[in-house]
Amino acid sequence: MFEVHAYAATDATKPLAPFKISRRDVGAHDVHIEILYSGVCHSDLHQAKGDWGNSTFPMVPGHEIVGRVKAVGSAVKKLKVGDYAGVGCMVDSCRECESCKKDLEQYCLVHTSFTYNGTEQDKTTPTQGGYSTDIVVEERFVVKISKKLDLKATAPLLCAGITTYSPLRHWKVGKGQKVGIIGLGGLGHMGVKFAKAMGAHVTMITTSEAKGADAKRLGADAVLVSKDADAMAKEAASFDFLLNTIPVSHDVAPYVALLKLDGTMVLVGALTPIDAFAGGSLMLPRRTIAGSAIGGMAETQEMMDFCAKHNIVSDIEMVDMASINETYERLVKNDVRYRFVIDMATMPKG
Question: Across all residues in the chain, what is the average pLDDT?
Fold first, then answer.
């Protein structure tokens, strides 16, 4: 075991503050990463504040981790010292269940070890995340990052990126399809970039006309203002696929009406209950509402390679580690375009 510097929430009522945690020594299959950048996700805020009722303390948040490989175990094959590498929302799974054997570790039927506010496979040892200087993770749960990419802007790909890439790939979004991305935020801006790179005709669906110009800068072909009833009516039954990134409870009925025959809307933002809607709106004309989480490790590596090929990264704002509590206050106000990333070189080490 070795000690590293971190920032932690010690309970839900206190601000994050400097903290020290222990990382395990590098085993045969492990990768030791010197963390250079750590993305800030809304879920970090919710977990640190105990909003979801499952928080355990002390907690070091952060599951959008990128850095440089510092050491590898004797059995590690895909990474070497000096490579750029990333760690996302999970650091282990049972590896034996039906989901894991299909490279769908995010849907592990036994126990997913989340990167923080979780436990290792022993279901006892707490996991601690990326607001720290170093992390040791089993090779299977580390992705290799191309040196072609802006490293700091790749950090949010480990959560916001894979959360949007996975459903677009699973539902085979591509050329000839009309795709709507609902909500222009941390998830939505990545959805636009990915859907466009996959060859779809992309429409940003937003409540704010002011976001239209930025959506087109990101690659959207069109903008649909959902508050404009006439515009929504004109687009009825015209979309093949909708990626719904709205992070709160809302009325899905107006969006369901946009789907054509056999069209699908996938929810990736709302963890809370959605408003009731008429079942008939799905039956006629045979529409589907589905949900999706992050991707498995093979798909996450695929996404990273796709990003390198198409030069896709997140739009970010850099922040210092010591300003994380102010950064959380800005997150509450949605005062970010579109993701915050911590420069870990600013970690206090006193």
Answer: 96
